[in-house]
Amino acid sequence: MSNKKIQMIPKIECGIVIDHIPAGDGIRILEILQRDPGLKNVPITFGMNYQSNKLGTKDMLKIQKEDLCERTIQHISLVSPGVTIKRIRNFEVVEKVSIQPPIDLINLLKCLNPGCISQNEPGLKTHFVLSDPENKRVTCVYCEREFFINELSPII
Amino acid sequence: MKKHDLISMHDLTVDDIQIYLNTAARVEEIPLKDRFTLLQGKIMASLFFEASTRTRLSFEAAMYRLGGNVIGFAEQAATSISKGESFSDTIHTVENYADVIVIRHPKEGTSRHAAQISYLPVINAGDGTNQHPTQTLLDLYTIVKSFKKIEGLRIAFVGDLKYSRTVHSLLQALIKFRVNEFMLVSPDSLCLPEYLKRIETDFPVTFVETRHLEDAIPYADIIYMTRIQRERFPDQIEYEKVKDSYCLNAKMLKVAQNTLKILHPLPRVNEIAPDVDETPHAEYFQQVKNGLIMRQAILLYVFEVQL
Ligand SMILES: [Zn+2]
Predict the structure, then answer these.
(1) What is the count of residue pairs from A and B with beta carbons less than 8 Å apart?
(2) pLDDT in tens, B111-125
(3) In this predicted complex, what is the ipTM?
(4) What is the bridge-based pairing of β-strands A104-106 and B69-73?
């Protein structure tokens, strides 16, 4: 079985592999990729529920493009912190990083508080700080309310 | 030079708060006639995008007491914002006229935003339901003045503990000063939110919750009364049920400790009967006076005036 799983996802010659995605998070990462205009017409392979020694089951994504923009990486780190981004060249992994959410989240998420100035002043970028990484909670710098990351809609 | 904004109690360490408390104590030692020159030639912009007469008068009086001048507006209707001007345009206009900006605004985070975009120091005079740091500082100053300490005091909060930002902010500040025992007196529908009780400290903090004001009177060093605000209730029937929950009168205070002090951010409705005013426990008008002192201290700190 473990040999077969490798055959099931075609290798890419050049591009980005997002690996070690906890099973179920992959679809949410795919949504982020779909919103990235830089990935329009870029072939993406998505695999779900592979066996993983570390995670039990995992999802995986392969993107046939050399770079991912910083914003997209930040959005992915919010949805699924700890996933691995591998850069592939000539079928070889040339770089491998585990991504963590940034401490300052600038204009990535929309504040849920309708009374918050960030929702009422045109042009004002939202700003959250990662106040509780363990529980994936962020605090709005403006209204000082704390939210779970998955309660907040992303800013594309 | 770093400008001294005052936006949120969350930005302040115990040492920062102590600077404000010490400055306020120092201000009181200076005779009125000698204060008049301290901020001569300075202009405070008092931008009240929402009416709050007490806070505005206190800030403006503080500035005048120090010899400074005030420009500004008392409500949004009087300004070009009502003609559609953006908030940032208002700030960038006003900053040409003044040396410090005081802002009251119905939206949360507005003072933070103003402090980010302006080169002038900004003082938050209340941003929606979020913060009102000068109120918390004047409450702390009132407590220190009465008891010469903060740690070890037993404080009872009474009334609307759910929505009162004054209570939330003071409670958090008191815990910074290692106060570890609180009594929470409220109707069931207006209890203190749970997240405020889950504060990380290296010492245990006890909350005693009760519905009865009588429980708090013999227990407390300080009773902090609040008004139950009609506008907080989506359902007016709910308001009618609880609005008269707590009415403190002089007779009830017979069982109080001699040193008990009663605080209230004012305005009061009927939470404190007028006969309490005559007792030595009434501290709320002193609190108003302390507010004026604290706001002078804050302005002097903003301008880095050495006393
Ligand atoms: Zn916010």
Answers:
(1) 48
(2) 999 999 999 999 999
(3) 0.91
(4) unpaired
